What does this fold into?
Amino acid sequence: MGLLKYAERQDFATAARYLQLTPGQDANLVQLAKEFLALHSRFKGNVDLLSDDPNGTVEAGLPPGQERAGKISVGGTTVDVILVRVDDPQYGRIWLVSQETVAKIP
It folds into this structure.
């Protein structure tokens, strides 16, 4: 929800904080957030249906601490949008768009 909230405000630098990068990944985070959000119209899912439980819900095929938010379809390619629970030193336990999902944005 934070990603969407900051994107609506055109604050892509803050929105990008909700994207999990692989260690050592060199990316223009603002551009990456813009690209991810440009795909919003192709998102199939309902973020309002995500669990309110801070630990998420257990889903078959996903390890604990991960939750499927929906899918993005472009052409013949469909990508699961997976959220991952992380411990952030500044904000505590938060949900991010997983590095696997982020890697598939381009």
Notes: The mean pLDDT is 82.
